[in-house]
Request: fold
Amino acid sequence: MTEAARRQQGTVYGFLAYLLWGAFPLYFHLLRPAGPWEILAHRIVWTLLLCGLLLLLLRDVRWLGRLVRRPRRLGGVALAGALIATNWGIYTWAVLSGHVTEAALGYFLNPLVTVALGVVILGERLRRLQWTAVVIGTVAAVYLTFDYGAPPWVSLALAFSFATYSLLKNRLGVSLTPLQSLTGESLVILPVAVVILLWLDRTGGTTFGGHGALHTALLVSTGVATAVPLILFAAAASRVPLSTIGLLQFLTPFLQLLTGVLLLGEVVPATRWVGFAMVWVALVVLSVDMVRQVRRSRRTRRDLVHPAP
Reply:
């Protein structure tokens, strides 16, 4: 396969991953009358079972023993699991309680928060356009705080939980494959899911098995719905440049925003669209910087390989 064909294939994988994530609001609405806690618990359980089955088929289980023997790495995986479960829980609650547009804003803000965390925690130095994007994003957050009458907690919680999760995954490096990582994270938070399901069963709050075969099948399908986009994303990330991934990621919140407004009937006041517009300007600036940096890096590598006479 040529490099061009490989990149084209990776772009398709990435597009499909973000398209599926963008459709999550409609998918979670299909899971009603299950509530956010029940959906979160089933998502953890069925994702773990699916990933475990795939690893057994691939005969790839020895890494678990190595992970257990390295407490520091195991702690990192456990923290990553807690962060992604928090993100899943907040997002599910937002969708089911009619805050899809706020959830979309959170994922629009995520790249800006990721850049800011890189400065604060990793001591990274930002380029001029990156600083410009962060400043515009901060102004947008302040503006939206005044518009809402309070900080947009749902958006900020989603942005910070996923940005911190991404930062932690960066620090953990490539010690685990995406499938291994998802399995480990699901495994360490499995006790939480079990406690939730037992509590719901005891209080009569569970819907699993009591609302028809289709509803039960949909809850079981949360494992596939979680794992498939992540696997597609991993396949894309290994085939296309980071700039392509960075641009594709805006597809998800854009689709979520459209879903909330056009299909789920959420109302966004005109003043709030101003805040969204500020965030989009910041993302455009960040995207321009990303593309310029990738081109500059390619040019540098090309000059090293083929120096001018």
